[in-house]
Amino acid sequence: MNEKEPSGYKDAALEAIRKADVEIGDLIRVTKKEEAYEGILIPRSEYGDEKYIVIKLKNGYNIGINLTSEMRIEKIGKGSKPAFAAPPPPEQNAKLPKVVIVSTGGTIASRVDYRTGGVRPALTASDLYSVVPELASIARIDAQILFGLFSENIGPHHWAEMAKAIAKQITEGADGVVIAHGTDTMGYTAAALSFALQNLPVPVIIVGSQRSADRPSSDAATNLIGAVTAAANAPFAEVVVAMHETSSDTSIVFHRGTKVRKCHSSKRDAFKSVNTTPIARIQNQEMTMLTEDYRKRDKARKLLLKPEFDEKVALIKFYPGMNPELIDWYVERNYRGLVLEGTGLGHISRQSFEPLQRAVGKRVIVAMTSQCIWGRVNMNVYNSGRDLLALGVIPLEDMLSETALVKLMWVLGQTADPKETMELLTTDVAREFSPRTLPEKTDIE
Fold it and tell me: With CB atoms 3.0 to 4.6 Å apart as the test, which of 56, 205, 214, 309 could cross-link to 40 if both were Cys?
């Protein structure tokens, strides 16, 4: 067995396997006292106890067998290492709309890595298309891979590349574009593309999954089918996030890219529209629009691409006891913008007022959002809020803090003029502001 082989075996287990001259994929018999087990030797987590080996039995179950001094391992058949092989893509129907699936990585494009027991990016966009053959009856699919990254590794320069890639596909005639993306920072990317892709003629659907495609409880296929259906046929032309509406597989909802947040770490219905309703729902293969306020699909419309982002922007979450020197730290490092995530209606401690005044004096744009999920900033209610307004802090109404961060990056990528920056930051560009906050159900269950 090769030292570099990512089998996950080490120490005593690795020595036992080498001594028996067996490799991953071989059919082996393990005998312990009066008991014998036959199965295929498979990789195991390198972070587990090294004193066991793992075999796959004929019935499909995997078992771990503890190493003992009397245990005997023998090869009874030569096998092949387990590997994923996607089936060939289904045939295309030339009469269907053209949808481009662009993969950037994430759980939807991942499989379990038996070496670590974790999940790793493994599937390309073509693989996704191949393992969900239902897509062939919905659209003509052109599957491409742009990145193979978990979403925590995606940043502003990736947003710019995504925007350019999407614009290219739309210019070349795509009827819709689907972006396969990790869920953890999907809200940031959705906001970024909402600002970078203006005057969209067709839908851009960002889709992910909470469970990898090779798990029985995976939501990958259902989400992808919903996303491609919307990209091909939806009446709207906006950037949206497509995910489960509930924990079951009954419906997919489409959240506006600037108003969506991941509200649960692992549930399949983790995403919620905040201070607004989702744009649409697909249930029983039928789409229902949930609002009349949306940009309509129009392939004759000319896309306006603005993919520039300035990374010298920080999001600062206020907390009791926060050191106000944190603000100075960013200013001293030439950050051009700060988004404050304040408490309640938009407050931070008075100890932070002086560094904020210094920041504004150095022409740093400082904006205020709220840590609360629902509701909006109103800095005119309390004296502390009014004082912050007098210092030059800009209230951002009901804009989500992650959307505010992305928007300020985008705004500073468009202009260096302070007056233009403030005007653009407070202008509703991609439905990031709601005109007013209405009473609504706010639980995330």
Answer: 56
The reply to whether CATH 2.30.30.520 applies to domain 11-77 is: yes
Q: How many helices (H) and strands (E) does the chain have?
A: 10, 23
Assign a CATH topology to domain 98-305.
Rossmann fold (3.40.50)
DSSP class of residue 105 equals -
Cα 101 to chain centroid distance, Å, stands at: 15
Q: Where in the chain is the domain with CATH 2.30.30.520?
A: 11-77
The closest alpha carbon to 430, from 412, 408, 407, 414, belongs to 407
φ, ψ of residue 233 to 5 degrees: the values are -130, -10
Token code pair at residue 117: 């027991």
Dihedral sign of CA atoms 431, 436, 437, 440 in order: negative
Give CA torsion, residues 254, 376, 433, 419, to 10 deg: -150
What CA–CA distance (Å, rounded) separates 118 from 128?
20
Question: Under a CB-based contact definition with an 8 Å cutoff, are residues 189 and 405 in contact?
Answer: no
Report residue 69 as tokens: 């001094």
Give residue-wise pLDDT tens across range 19-74: 999 988 899 999 988 889 999 998 876 666 778 888 888 887 888 888 888 899 99
Residue-level pLDDT at 62: 84
Ranges of the chain whose pLDDT falls below 70: 1-6, 45-48, 79-87, 106-130, 211-217, 438-445
Distance (Å) of CA 216 to CA 24, 212, 220, 221, 428:
24, 9, 10, 11, 42
Q: Tell me which residues are annotated as active site.
A: 107, 183-184, 262
Q: How far apart are CA 45 and CA 53, in angstroms?
A: 10
As to burial, measured by CB atoms within 10 angstroms (0-12 exposed, 13-18 middle, 19+ buried), residue 304 is exposed
CA-closest candidate to residue 183, choices 265, 272, 285, 98: 265
DSSP state of 435: S
Give the separation between CA 292 and CA 290, rounded to whole angstroms. 7
Q: What distance, in Å, lies between the first and last C-alpha atoms of the chain?
A: 49
Per-residue confidence (pLDDT) for residue 285, from 0 to 100: 87
In degrees rounded to 5, what are phi and psi of residue 272?
-135, 145
Residue 357 CA to residue 364 CA, distance in Å, equals: 10
In the structure encoding, which two tokens stand for residue 147, read together? 């990145």
Q: Give the model's pLDDT for residue 444.
A: 41
CA atoms within 13 A on the CB side of 125: 20
Q: What CATH code would you report for 313-425?
A: 3.40.50.40
Spatial separation of the C-alpha atoms in residues 369 and 261, rounded to whole Å: 14
Q: Are strands 304-305 and 271-273 parallel, antiparallel or unpaired?
A: unpaired
From residue 152, alpha-carbon distances to 120, 188, 258 in Å are 13, 10, 18
H/E stretch holding 103 reads: strand 98-103
